[in-house]
Amino acid sequence: MSLIFYSSSRTSLVKSELSAVTGHFIGYAVLAITYAFALSRTTKLNRKQLLFIPILLAVLYGISDELHQLYTPTRFSDINDVIVDFLGAAVGSYGYYLWNRLLINRTPAEKCRRLVDKKERRT
Predict the structure, then answer these.
(1) Cβ(104)–Cβ(96) below 8 Å
(2) How far apart are CA 83 and CA 35, in angstroms?
(3) Are 54 and 96 in contact (CB under 8 A)?
(4) Is the model's pTM score more than 0.85?
(5) pLDDT tens column, 45-64
(6) Is 107 helix (H, G, I), strand (E, B) or coil?
(7) How many CA atoms lie within 13 A of 68 on its CB side?
(8) Residue 68: CB partners within 8 Å, gap ≥ 6?
(9) Cβ neighbours of 62 (radius 10 Å)
(10) CB under 8 Å to 32, separation ≥6 — which residues?
């Protein structure tokens, strides 16, 4: 988040529109993955919540970043940036969701719930 904030507070660094879009997309994909990872380790959210909450948090941060750019000289706020932020966050969060589901197969909270369920079925 601090890297995004720092980049948006600088005067225009990007030479082309494509690199700006790519930067937004990748930056917010990484941000959503970071949110999903942190939430999966510190909360008892289910998979669907771990899919959508990081997207919501990243988009809210993207909106605040665009508001911040309104007050930065030579920068401007653009709704298209928020859309690209959303798409990047969605891809990042869904990528984490798939990675977690296919490779790990469970979130830590789900592992605990499954263990409790198995113990309850045995008794």
Answers:
(1) no
(2) 19
(3) yes
(4) no
(5) 888 899 999 999 999 999 99
(6) coil
(7) 17
(8) 5, 8, 9
(9) 24
(10) 54, 55, 57, 58, 88, 89, 90, 92, 93, 96
